[in-house]
Amino acid sequence: MTELIEKYLGMSTELQNQLLISVFIIFVMWLILRLTLKFVINKIDVLPVRYQWKKFTTYIAVALSIVFLSQVWLGAFGSLGTFLGLLSAGLAIALKDLLINMVGWAFILIRKPFKVGDRVEIGSVSGDVVDIRIFQFSLMEIGNWVDADQSTGRIIHVPNGIVFIQPQANYTEGFAYIWHEVPVLITFESNWKKAKAILNEILDKHALHLSPDAEKQVKEASKRFLIYYKVLTPIVYTEVKDSGVLLTMRFMCDPRRRRVTQEIIWEAVLDEFTKCDDIDFAYPTQRFYDNRGEGKSGTKPQEA
Predict the structure, then answer these.
(1) Are residues 197 and 268 both part of a single domain?
(2) In a domain, 285, yes or no
(3) Which of 81, 94, 174, 184 has the least C-beta neighbours within 10 A?
(4) Coil vs helix vs strand at 253
(5) Residue 299 lies in a domain
(6) CB 155 within 8 A of CB 202
(7) 177 to each of 8, 117, 222, 255, how far by Cα in Å?
(8) Is the distance from CB of 248 to CB of 184 less than 8 angstroms?
(9) What is the spatial distance between Cα 115 and Cα 56, in angstroms, rounded to a whole number?
C-alpha cells in the first residue's frame, strides 16, 4: 500500500507516516477531550465553573495537539528543555485569557483595589462585590434601570483580567462616604435667602452628624492616598438658571443609603416650603413680563 501511494500520488514513505501519525494524534486528542467533557466536566453543577473548565480543557487539548504535531513535522526536539519551552509557549498562547485572569486575581488579592463587600464601578458595570475567585469576581448589580444606586437583583460575573484594561471606581475605599447633591429650583419671585436658610437647617439636621466621622476617615485614608478635603460640612450653593434660582444642597452620605437620605431631605424640604407663602418651586412655564408694571423703578422706560 505504501509503495502504491508513493508510485501514484508521489508521497514518500516518510510523508505518509507523518500524515498517519498526525491523524492518529488528532483522533486520540479529540477522543480524550470528548470523554473528559462527557464524564467529568459535564458532571459539574455550577455553570460558571463548568464553563471555565470546558475552556481550560479545550485549550489544553489544542496546545498538546500542536506540540505533538510540531514534533512529528518539525522533527524530534533536541532536548527536554526545548520541549518544555515550546510546551510552555503553546500553553501560554492557548490559555492566554485564563492566565490573564489568574494574574488579575493575584493583583486583586495583593494590591486590593477592591475587596468583598466594597461597592465598585468597573467600565459600565456597578455593584457590590460578593465573591472573588481565581478566574472572575461577582457583583450584585446596582443602578442600570433602577435609580439611585439600588440593587437590581442580578449577579454579574466579571473576568479578573478586566482590572488591567478598565478603570475601577471604589465607592467605599478610603472613607465610607461620598458627596451627593440635591438641586432645588425656586422661582425668581421667591424669597431665596429664606429658602437657603431653610435648606441649611435641613442639612444640619439630617447630614451634619456625618462630618466628624468622615473627617476621621479622611485622615486615615490620607496615610495611603493623597486625599485632602478642607470642608466636609454640608453647604448650599446659589446659582441663577433660566427658570429661577437654583439652590444646590451638597452633603456627604453613605453610598448605600443615598436614595433613603435623598428621600428624607426632600420630604423635609416639601414640608417646610409648604409653610411658606413666599417660596415657590420653579418649573417650565410661559409668562409675559411687563417691565412698566413689574420692573424695578430704575429699569422702567422713561416717559417722554
Answers:
(1) yes
(2) no
(3) 81
(4) strand
(5) no
(6) no
(7) 82, 15, 14, 6
(8) yes
(9) 26
d(CA 249, CA 183): 6
pLDDT of residue 277: 92
What's the start-to-end Cα distance of the chain, in Å? Answer: 122
Q: What is the C-alpha to C-alpha distance for residues 138 and 156, in angstroms, rounded to an integer? A: 6
Q: What is the chain's alpha carbon radius of gyration, rounded to the nearest angstrom?
A: 34
Answer for the pair 273, 259: CB distance below 8 angstroms, yes or no: no
Domain count, the chain: 3
pTM flag (> 0.70): no
The model's pLDDT over 30-88, given as tens digits with 9 standing for 90+, comes to 999 889 888 888 887 777 677 778 877 887 888 788 878 777 766 644 555 555 666 66
212-215: Cβ within 8 A, 24+ apart: 213/177, 214/175, 214/176, 214/177, 214/252
Assess whether pLDDT exceeds 90 at residue 185.
yes
Residues 87 and 160 in one domain: no
Q: What's the pLDDT at 52?
A: 73
